[in-house]
Structure prediction request, 413 residues.
Amino acid sequence: MKILFLQDDFPPQSFGGAGISTYDLAHGMKKAGHEIFVVTTCRKESDAGELDYQGLKVFRIVNNYSGRWRAYLSLYNRKSNYQLEELLKKIKPDVVHANNIHFYLSYHSLKVSKRYAKVVVITLRDAMAFSFGKLQTIKYLEDFNCRITWLDSLKQARKRWNPFRNFFIKRYLGYTDKIFAVSNALVGALEQNGIKNAKAIHTGIDVDLWHTNEDEIDRFKEQFNLKDKKVILFGGRLSGAKGGTKALEAMLEIVKYIPDAVLLVVGKVDEYAHEMKIVANKLGIGDKLVFTGWTDREQTKHALASSDIVLVPSICFDAFPRTVLEAMASGKPVIGTRYGGASEIIVDGVTGYIVNPLSSKEIANKTLILLKDSKKAEEFGQAGYERIKNNFNLENMVREYIAAYETLLKKKE
Prediction:
């Protein structure tokens, strides 16, 4: 099959979760013998054009605009869609598989793709198809009600509100032959917002990529002064919605019982990272934070391997947190959020714990259980590794998508 992937940001320009997941899927499809193309975007004219990235044919379309126009240009971006159409005419793919297109490529790319591909599908990886930002309404946090009203949308977008945004997204999704979602939780949230018949295919990863050796771990620990410390890792795109403040509040309790515990913050040192430093200093635990700055995939692997526990306390709908997959593939116990799809990966009390991230006390208590009982932590980590290896591996995901493509193509014959 000739398969073309659409993804706003893609390696090596960007190593965000959606881009990495799309790369893994595309690479897995290539290994399975299919002809693969990727259309992505870049911000500078000098970066635009065709390149070969680790055996994948990648086409970069230059596109950049102020985020204030996202509610409109994420629906229809004329500049991106014109260039995409030219590529589709040339490639003539059997399948177009869209991923995150809700910023630069725009949802209109689904309509354009329908003209030239036999089958068009999309994988939704977050709540953006119905929510302008992170889904963290009070009714969701209290009752798991994902339904977004026009008033919720107005509160999220404020001056950038487009009252027709969700209507047009549903219209554009109608051009797909199938909608996939990365978790059952996301399927349910989509249904609550009128997006029906989505199918869950869980993200899978290559567990072999997360193996490391003692020398690499020692070097990383020495670089960040982590030797003889109990290391709790908190990482990803740092934000309050990801539970950063609650992680700090939990640390205040943890260090009372385990003074050598540190919070290893893995991610770009941006405005929110500085806010974390200020809060930590006010709490009197500023010396318990270690910031790595931005890390590539290899450095992230070393950070995970150097940790004792991984904390993913998102206070928002986190559809299927990749950090959980990577941590468990690294053999680490994970304390994850009850919001979103983390509970589909973590087996509570077996591979880690599912907590209410609004309760810093609960986060602290579960963390302390594992820090005080290294045998239990090791057992959880091994069980987590086996779970990822057997249930959330890349090969399974690739097979599921290929089977779906083939079924859809047969219907077109």
